[in-house]
Write a structure and sequence with these properties.
Elements lengths: L1 E10 L2 E7 L11 E2 L1 E4 L6 H13 L2 E15 L2 E15 L8 E7 L10 H11 L5 E8 L2 E7 L1
Parallel strand pairs: 1-6, 5-8
Antiparallel strand pairs: 1-2, 1-4, 2-3, 2-7, 5-6, 8-9
């Protein structure tokens, strides 16, 4: 089981999105996602969130909200539990990311991006301000085949 964090940072009616186009063997290649990554040994989800956001964006989160846990299951990839956050306030200047292109996207345009189908489900809830999300998303390749509430 892999444990990860994912954060969608809000600012001026936009979300900071990462277009994954720089890493080799990237399950997220060609998709827009939030920022985050794997927990390191001994690290809490909150510590991982702060570290990953800073490493990928140069921003330091000063206020954030825990939205829930999403489990991803797909053939050929290890099962992943992802701690989902919304970044509400930050300090610092946005920098270039080694994993892809960072861009502020107006909230009303998010669903027009190339997203994972499961991400559309929890992003819709996130954009509506909901917390307490607990989903289990099962994929076969890029195809979402089952959605369960945990």
């Amino acid at each position: 089981m892999i444990l990860t964090t994912l954060c969608y940072i809000e600012h001026d009616g936009k979300l900071l999105m990462l277009y994954r186009n720089k890493k080799k063997r990237d399950v997220n290649a060609g998709k827009w996602i939030g920022v985050g990554g794997k927990l390191e040994p001994g690290e809490t989800p909150e510590q991982c969130l702060l570290r990953e956001v800073y490493e990928e964006t140069g921003l330091t989160l000063t206020k954030y909200l825990f939205n829930g846990i999403i489990r991803f299951e797909s053939e050929g990839w290890e099962t992943e539990d992802m701690y989902l956050y919304t970044g509400l306030e930050f300090a610092g200047e946005l920098k270039e990311c080694s994993e892809g292109e960072l861009r502020w996207i107006p909230k009303e345009e998010i669903m027009n991006l190339q997203l994972w189908e499961g991400d559309r489900i929890f992003l819709k809830e996130l954009l509506a301000g909901k917390t307490g999300l607990h989903l289990h998303l099962k994929y076969r390749g890029d195809l979402l085949v089952e959605v369960l509430e945990l």
